[in-house]
Amino acid sequence: MKNRFKITITALLAVLLAAGVSTAQEPAPGDAKPEKTAEKQQEKKITLKKAAPLEGLTWVKGEPVKQFEKGKVYVVEFWATWCGPCRHSIPHLTKLQKKYQDKGITIIGISDESMETIKPFMEEMGDEMDYTIASDPKGIASKNYMEAYNQSGIPAAFIVDSNGYVAWYGHPGGGEMDYILELAAAGEFDGEEYAVKKAEAEALNRKINKLFNEYFSAVMEAKPYKEHRKTLDKIIETEHPQALNELAWIILTQVPENNRDLEKALEIAKKVNTLTENKEPAAMDTYALALFENGEVKDAVKTQTAAVELAKKMKDADPMMLEELKKNLEKFKAAQ
C-alpha cells in the first residue's frame, strides 16, 4: 500500500535493515526541499555541454538531422537489435514521437549495427517503431554521447534542449524523460535550471542516505532510541515527505518493539501530514498508526476515516491500498 507514495528510498531501507548499506533511488527534482548549503551553491554553477553534431551516421528512417535547430528539442537514444530492454522501450518512444510530433520534438534512435541488421528488425517491429532511425557504423555518435557522458548500458537517451545543449541523459523509461518532454512541449523546460534542481535533489538524497545509514546502524546495534534522536531530528529537517513517511512507518512496524521511539514516530508522521496538507492517504495511514500506537485511539480513528474517504475519491487509487486502509480503520475502531 505504501508504494504509491513512498518510492524514493524503499530500497535503501530494506538494505539498511539487512546489512547497513545504502542503495536508495534518487528523488525526482522538485520532490524535496533544496539544501541551503555550500554544496548547493557550488552545484548552481552547473554548465551544460553543447550537444555534439550527429556526424558519421547513415540515416535509415526519417529525415536526416544534420544539425540541432534552435527552438526544437531532440531525444538522441542509443539502442541495439539484440537488446531486450531496448526492444521494450521502442513502442513507448513511438508513442512519444506521435504525441509530440507537432510540438518541435524529434526522437532519433541510433544503433552501431549495420543497415543490414537494422532494416529487418525495423520491418519486424512495423508501426511500433515509427521515429527517426540511424546507423552509427564508425561509432562516432556513440563516442560523442555514450563515452563522453560515461554511459555504458543501453538503452540510453540524451535530451538536447531548444538551445542545443545536452540537458538530461539516462534511461528512456522510468518517467523522468517523459516528464521533461511534457515540459518541453509546453515551452516550460529550462535545461540548466532542471540540471541544478536535479543536482540539489541528488545532494539531498545523499544526505538522507547517510543519515538513514547512521540511524539504522544504531538500531541494529540495539542502542537506546533516545541516543539517536539527534539523527532523527536531522532527517526531519530535510522536510522530505517520502523519506519521513518511510522513516515513521519503519519505526512503527519494523524496529524491535522494545526500542521503538513511538513519540518521535508520531512527531515525524504529523510533520509529513503537514507537508502534504493532509492530502495523501498513505501518509495519513502512517499518522493514524502513530496516533494509535501512542494511545490516541480516537484521533487515530478520525484520521484513518479521513484517509479512507480521501482514497475513495482518488481516480488512481489502488484497490489493495484502499482495502488495507479499511482494514486498519476496523482495527482502530475495535480498540475504542
Automatic annotation (TrEMBL):
Highest taxon above the source species: Bacteria
CDD domains, sorted: TlpA_like_family
InterPro entries given in the database record: AhpC/TSA (IPR000866), Thioredoxin-like_sf (IPR036249), Thioredoxin_CS (IPR017937), Thioredoxin_domain (IPR013766), Thioredoxin_ResA/DsbE_sf (IPR050553)
Thioredoxin domain segment(s): 46-189
Key words of the record: Redox-active center, Signal
Gene3D superfamilies noted in UniProt: Glutaredoxin (3.40.30.10)
PROSITE patterns named among the record's database cross-references: THIOREDOXIN_1 (PS00194), THIOREDOXIN_2 (PS51352)
Molecular function per GO: antioxidant activity; oxidoreductase activity
Signal peptide coordinates: 1-24
Stated name of the protein: Thiol-disulfide oxidoreductase ResA
Naturally occurring in which organism (per UniProt): Limihaloglobus sulfuriphilus
Recorded name of the encoding gene: resA
